[in-house]
Amino acid sequence: MTFDAVRPEPTDEPVLEVSDLGVRVGDRELVREVSFSIARGERVGLIGESGSGKSLTALGIMGLLPEGLTATGSARVARVGHDLVGASERRLAKVRGRDLAMVFQEPMTALNPTMRVGEQVAEAMLIHHTRPDRASARRAAVALLDQVRMPEPAQVARAYPHQLSGGQRQRVVLAVALANDPAVLVCDEPTTALDVTVQALVLDLIVRGVQARDAALLLITHDLAVVATACERVLVMYGGRLVEAGPVRRVFTRPRHRYTQGLLAASDLLAVDDRGRLATIPGSVPPSGDFPTGCVFRNRCAHATLECETVPEWTGDSVADGFACHHPAAPDEGWREGGQK
Amino acid sequence: MLGALPPPGEAHTGVGGARRAVGPSLVVGAALVALVVAAALVSFVWVPHDPTFVDATHRLEKPNGTYWFGTDKFGRDVFSQILVGARTTLFVGFVSVGVAAVVGVPLGLLGAVTPRWLGDTLMRVNDIVLAFPALLLAIMLTAAFGQSTLVAMIAIGVATIPSFGRLIRSGGLQVMGTEYVLAARVAGRRTAGISVRHVLPNVANLVIVQSSVSFAIAVLAEAALSFLGFGTPPPTPSWGRMLQESQELLFLAPRLAVFPGVAIAVAVLGFNLLGDGLRDYLDPKLEDRR
What we know:
The complex is a heterodimer. Chain A has two domains: 4-231, 3-Layer(aba) Sandwich (Rossmann fold), CATH 3.40.50; 255-318 and 328-338, no CATH class. Chain A has ten helices and eleven strands. The longest helix of chain A is centred in the middle third of the chain and has 18 residues, at 196-213. In chain A, strand 8 and strand 9 (241-247) form a beta hairpin. Helix content of chain A is 29%, strand content 21%. Chain A has helices spanning 54-62, 89-95, 117-127, 134-147, 153-157, 166-178, 196-213, 224-230, 248-253, 258-266; strands spanning 14-25, 28-39, 43-47, 69-77, 100-103, 184-188, 216-221, 233-238, 241-247, 315-318, 321-323. Chain A is globular and about 65 Å long. By secondary structure, chain A is an alpha/beta fold. The two termini of chain A are 34 Å apart. Chain B starts with 23 loop residues before the first helix and ends in an 8-residue tail after the last helix. The longest helix of chain B has 38 residues, at 191-228. Chain B has one domain (24-289): MetI-like (MetI-like fold). Chain B is elongated. Chain B is mostly helical. Chains A and B meet through helix 2, helix 3, helix 6 and helix 7 of A and helix 6 and helix 7 of B.
């Protein structure tokens, strides 16, 4: 399942532009110097292990960080005249759900159990007055449920969330997110909580949804196969920093950062060592904010030297295609060597 | 791949979906409450005797065919007084619980959805009211505004506000932490919309349960106030005052204390059991423990 053929030409004008985004709690920096931009109609994956700051990046952009966490830097969305970082709740509320929408990981809890699902989809439009009245919003909600291929949408609209399966609920959540034709759709692990059989369907619906609207997609996941299926570009995050970025094909076949290399090697379920064990990245992700100074990956990296105690510069053609590593893999090395001895 | 959708309203799987069994406390509580409500309703259309009619020729009658529960020291029919007293009891309960809920629920919601420091401040004020003895408040208000059912009801209501405020805040905070509230914020909902559309419907079961339990407390408080002479003024029949009037005759005619006492016990027990039963019935999290 690839979608390359149907995608419209991406324009150069970015619809989401994040520069130097940081998230901190007190003195601890959980996310640092994250910069990227997504063009109209472009689909970008954000990958990394749990605890690498993927979700915090998304919440920072949305202005939804939990109390006590603050974002720094800048995040701009097309059609919106102001920076999202540091914007007032009043201004953010106008942007959220209209220009910038989000799908969460857990469909079982993302819907209000006391409201009919059609009502919840209709509400997304009524909040932003994109439909003139409740009746037309309800009709639009049924149409949206049909678009996410719910069987008998008119009947589903009258159901309560507990009457739907996980995959069905996630499709309702997607319908809510797409209701106002957002410029940017952020999906945080949208398929992780679903049955394998439903994952492909939901992913397909997400891609179709953003394509139909020429919207940009930021897909957060730790499933490399999902990124390979749905995205054109990929951002690799570790320790609250972007460590590598580039087109999916380049990054997945010729990774340069040692972390990306390890991640790819670990996802190869066919490659085993002489004792029959799968490749892993040694050690585990340190607790948030406790990453080493300099290169955040150096305490788990087989190639680390004293040089890695300084923060590596971004190397590569552009912000969109490059890496930050003192000892990068050779351009033709591939990822098979990335597994640790 | 697409699961068939069960028609709305039919049995289904999932947390809130399973049909829950009706527990014994719910049944008994509802029956006792129904008894009190029936007594009050019947009193509007029929009472055996005028409950306020003083009949010097039939004082302290034992229960018999004419006076089912006997008569008191003024010759008034006890059964009729019990029936009409149920009205007073329910009236006091409804109004005081209403006052408490109408003020306490928004207060608790406000405490849950506003920034932490503001919520904490509100709850400290709430705690101060909670620390104030309810009866003392009622006695103070009565001293200031004179003895009336209304003053008693408001006093009981004000004293009950904090228990609503506290409960709704803690329940509301829980709802505020859920993903669907986050999703609502993602959809662009502001705080006010979230409180009304998402938090309130999801703490409604708490409000219902607390109302029932508070009703029991209010009934007891009204009886206590009337007993002390701060509640419903004569001649309106009130169970609490009947109890007080029976005091001096406790050894001569103990039944005069037993009938209103049993009536109060039935009402208090009924609303307490109803509250417990509703909590079990409405709270899916308690399902497994039953």
